Amino acid sequence: MRIAAVETHVCHARMRNWVFVRVLTDEDGLHGWGEATLEWHTRAVVGAVEDLAELIVGEDPTRIEHLWQIMYRQHFWHGNDIVRGTALSGIDIALWDILGKVHGVPCHKLWGGPVRDYVRLYGHLGGGRMEDFYESDEPQRFGELASAMVESGFTAFKSMAVPPTMPLEGLAPIRHAERCVAAMREAVGDEIDLMVDCHARPSPRMGHLFAHALEQFGLYWLEEPCWPERADDIAAIQRSVSTPIATGERLVGVHGFRELLEKNACSVLQPDITHCGGLTEARRIAALAETYRVALAPHNPQGPVSTAASVELGLATPSYVICEAVTSDVPWRDEVMMNSHRIEQDGMRVFESDAPGLGVEIDLGVVKAHPFEPELLQRVFYADGSVGDW
């Protein structure tokens, strides 16, 4: 059995273009699905997949570690930049799907079998828009969105209640974040787990201030309180508050995660399976997390193949605690893919499936009905016109 071709199928889904990767084999009907979605870089990723395909067409698709090493180490440049890492990830995920189908078992059984009965999901209600910063009803909106999230079945959700800030500002943005999180906590009570995503908007000093201000609300975690490149500063924030700090979604490769763990910089690692190096590298990161007794909670705002892969990883990974789930980005999300995983809406839990591989199949007719469109530009400028972080 050999790899016959590697295809990309781009599907526009409002905020981002899903990039589905299909690896075809020379055995009739045997193929695997992966995902390599990277918003605002769709065309670059598609090109990178084509470049990597040249390295692996004609190879045995079941030699996954061997092929991962080829894709990462050859062509001289290591695959640890975000575009090539995403392309590699999409192919790697598809190879695991193939291997599961070859052996007739779901991926989690290839990795030692399930360690839990289900994977818990959390939702994302957004927020923290620059244009809403001074709106007096913004906290009320957060409270309403939080209530709706719980009514839909989630027992945990994340929001972006921290607005974009300059490297140093006064109390206004701190108090704004406090009011928004207070409204959410009041709306849902203490039984619901609340996370706040700073989106790496603050400087290290502002990150400290936000972390201290929001500590009173008993957050499940505070995410990316400053730039991910600043591991020492993230570690300092982690030491200064009782709130668990989460980070890692923008890191590619195991080495950045190793640095976070060595510096005790976080309580939650958030590799993105579609960027970090696929399921192969995610499993290495998970092993490190288990060694340091740090929780694993993959970043997963992408398409449905990414979610299926994240769930399969969670079923077989002890350090895994919860999975991000997007459910309402486009109304036809469930139409684009057949998914064998059973979701229990009350509590938003996903149970294992006996379907081989990832247990998914993409409907290319639905994909073709939503062809590529350039993503909407997301620009942030501070009041003085200088560039901010989105």
Structure description:
By secondary structure, the chain is of the alpha/beta class. It has 12 helices and 15 strands. Strands 4, 5, 6, 7, 8, 9, 10, 11, 13 and 14 form a 10-stranded mixed beta sheet that branches. Strand 8, helix 9 and strand 9 form a beta-alpha-beta unit. 48% of the residues are buried. The mean pLDDT is 94.
Short structural description:
The chain is of the alpha/beta class and 390 residues long. The protein contains twelve helices and 15 strands.
What is this structure's SSE topology?
Layout: E1 3-13, E2 16-25, E3 31-35, H1 42-56, H2 64-73, H3 82-103, H4 107-110, E4 118-124, H5 138-151, E5 156-159, H6 172-188, E6 193-197, H7 204-214, E7 221-223, H8 231-240, E8 245-247, H9 254-262, E9 268-269, H10 278-292, E10 295-296, H11 304-315, E11 323-324, E12 337-339, E13 342-344, E14 349-351, E15 360-362, H12 364-368
Parallel strand pairs: 4-5, 4-11, 5-6, 6-7, 7-8, 8-9, 9-10
Antiparallel strand pairs: 1-2, 2-3, 4-14, 12-15, 13-14
Helix pairs in contact: 1-3, 2-3, 5-6, 6-7, 7-8, 9-10
